[in-house]
Amino acid sequence: MTLSLYVLRKFLWNIFRVQFAFLFLIMIIDGVEQLRILSQFDAPVKDAIMLTLLRLNSYVMQIFPLVIMLAALSTFVGLSRSSELVISRAAGQSALRLLMVPVMATLVVGAAMTALYNPIVAATVRQADVILDKYNVGGRSLVSLSGGGIWLRQGDAESQFVIQAARASFNGTVLYQVGWHEFTPDGHLTRRIEASRAQLIEGEWVIRNGKQWQFDTTGPETLVTESEFDELRLPTNLTSQEILKNFASPDGISIWDLPALITQLETSGFSTHRQRLFIQSEIARPIMLVAMVLIGAGFSMRHSRFGQTGVMVLVAVFSAFLLYSMQSIAESLGSAQKISIFLAAWGPPSAGILLTLGLLLHLEDG
């Protein structure tokens, strides 16, 4: 028990050290980038600092598998160089049994990140989007979902459109039972359009068989002109990719709220493949972290007198990047519906664990 607590303490301390080093580096790089972007809009420095701090949480989620691997690598390289692994083996303690301590700790940390830290990340992502939207970074377009259907916003410096639709096609290019409301920059309604269907085609909305109302507010009384049309084309800066990317992005939604959102998306006609894949990837996060721990340990538990410690460290880092890349590729294939969601989320971490366990069983006498 004492030896296990000793290894656990060293492992957790190494996680803290590696994480702190990465966060310090990210704050410098991302802070400079946010200052550069927001300086174009004469934003105060405090907003750039706040945006950098809000974005840190999402970076933590992204780099944590690498942090875990480096922490395990540092822990077992240190134990090997100090001959503590040799002493533990001489005392009858199997190296594989000793490895169970950081593995169990990683499972707990991974589960906590999925269940507790994910909602915090989602909240900070939404808050960062609020700051960016205040300075019109990335264009003034917005897509959201409510009980009344789908809501979109598009526009420029001259006018703003608020679009409401009952439902949409799975790729967001066709809206059904749709209405447009055009506003001036100071908030006055100038036009209203209603149609049963609208289609997004190459930078414009094509609306057919609809009706529109023009509002003239220049006089003492508002004049309304009603007309019908066979086809009306409205330019837009929205694209199908932007709608699917920004609409109900799983990064900004707590994992506990995603099931209800998936139900709403299915009712509105959107594909929920992306959200379902995100849920499975978050649930599989502890397994991915365990695979990273095993990679770090598998290449560092040999005694340092055998030499080639530096080579083994480089191989461990390369293997971790390879597994991380495999996961990204699998998730991309899963999002494109080329492979199943289960295989995309659980395949790479499971393969990583099996391969590294095979390596450990080959190197250790257990």
List the helices and strands and how they pair.
Layout: H1 2-39, H2 45-81, H3 84-90, H4 95-134, E1 142-146, E2 149-155, E3 160-168, E4 174-183, E5 189-201, E6 204-216, E7 223-235, H5 240-246, H6 258-268, H7 273-283, H8 285-298, H9 309-335, H10 341-363
Antiparallel strand pairs: 1-2, 2-3, 3-4, 4-5, 5-6, 6-7
Descriptive overview:
By secondary structure, the protein is of the alpha+beta class. It has two domains: 2-135 and 264-363, no CATH class; 142-236, SH3 type barrels, CATH 2.30.30. The chain contains ten helices and seven strands. The chain has a seven-stranded antiparallel sheet with strand order 1-2-3-4-5-6-7. Strand 5 (189-201) and strand 6 form a beta hairpin. Helix 1 packs parallel to helix 4 (95-134), helix 2 (45-81) crosses helix 8 (285-298) and helix 8 (285-298) runs parallel beside helix 10. The radius of gyration is 27 Å and the shape is elongated. The protein starts with a helix and ends with a helix.
What's a concise summary of this model?
A hairpin with a 5-residue loop joins strand 4 (174-183) and strand 5 (189-201). This protein has 10 helices and 7 strands.
Percentage of residues in DSSP E strands:
15-25%
How many separate helices?
10
Largest sheet: 7 strands, antiparallel
The chain-level mean pLDDT equals 83
Distance between the termini: 19 Å
Radius of gyration in whole Å, from Cα? 27 Å
Q: What's the count of strands? A: 7
Strand order of the largest sheet: 1-2-3-4-5-6-7
Task: Give the helix proportion (percent range).
Answer: 55-70%
The oligomerization state is single chain
